[in-house]
Each structure stands twice: as C-alpha cells, then as structure tokens.
C-alpha cells in the first residue's frame, strides 16, 4: 500500500464530529462514513473479517438499493446485517 492509499492519518471531517456528538447519521456524508472505516482499518483499530456495504441512490427518479460484500460465505453477510438491524433498533429506542 502506498501513502496515497493509507487513510490512517486522514483528517476527521466536520460531519463525522457532528454525527458522533449528536448521534445523528444525517450529519455526515456516505463518503465520511467510508473514510472513517478506512481510517480505522489502516490504523489497525479494527480488522474486519466480513464487510457489507449497502447504499441507496436514485436512478431515473426511482430509489434503488445496492450492496457489495467481502465475505467467504453469504450467510455471514446476512447474519452481520441482521445483527446491525438489532443494534440500530436498540439505538433508536
């Protein structure tokens, strides 16, 4: 990995600071989320074995959802997503 690919020292965005402070995901951009994840991976703070990235966008005026996954087994991805749903629901109670 060259220096331009290493996000370990990438600065924290204002949106990330606001989101963490307020507990509001609307405060930061999808790119901010990805950069934070890369920063945590490159610094050694986390070492994911399974990663699922899902996103929504509009195509020809219609909302659509897509995903990418890095996993040796699709069932692991489904389990991770279900665990995420439970965690998100618990946070919003």
Describe the structure.
This protein has 2 domains: 47 residues, no CATH class; 45 residues, no CATH class. Strand 1 and strand 2 form a beta hairpin. It is 43% helix and 19% strand. With 93 residues, it is α+β, with helices and mostly antiparallel strands. The chain starts with 13 loop residues before the first helix and ends with a helix. The protein has 3 helices and 2 strands; from the N terminus they run H-H-E-E-H. The protein has a two-stranded antiparallel ribbon.
Instruction: Give the distance, in angstroms, between the N- and C-terminal Cα atoms.
Output: 41 Å
Unreliably modeled segments: none
Number of helices: 3
Q: Which sequence of strands runs across the widest sheet? A: 1-2
Report the strand count: 2
Give the ordered list of helices and strands.
HHEEH
Number of domains: 2
List the quaternary state of the chains: single chain
SS-based structural class? alpha+beta
- What percentage of amino acids are in beta strands? 15-25%
Largest pleated sheet: 2 strands, antiparallel
Give the mean pLDDT: 92
Q: Helix amount, in percent? A: 40-55%
Shape annotation: globular
Kindly provide the radius of gyration, computed on alpha-carbon positions and rounded to a whole number of angstroms: 15 Å
């Amino acid at each position: 990995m060259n220096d331009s690919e290493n996000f370990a020292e990438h600065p924290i965005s204002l949106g990330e600071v606001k989101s963490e402070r307020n507990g509001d995901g609307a405060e930061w951009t999808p790119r901010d989320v990805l950069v934070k994840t890369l920063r945590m991976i490159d610094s050694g703070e986390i070492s994911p074995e399974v990663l699922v990235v899902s996103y929504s966008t509009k195509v020809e005026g219609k909302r659509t959802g897509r995903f990418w996954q890095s996993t040796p087994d699709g069932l692991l991805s489904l389990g991770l997503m279900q665990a995420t749903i439970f965690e998100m629901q618990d946070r919003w109670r």
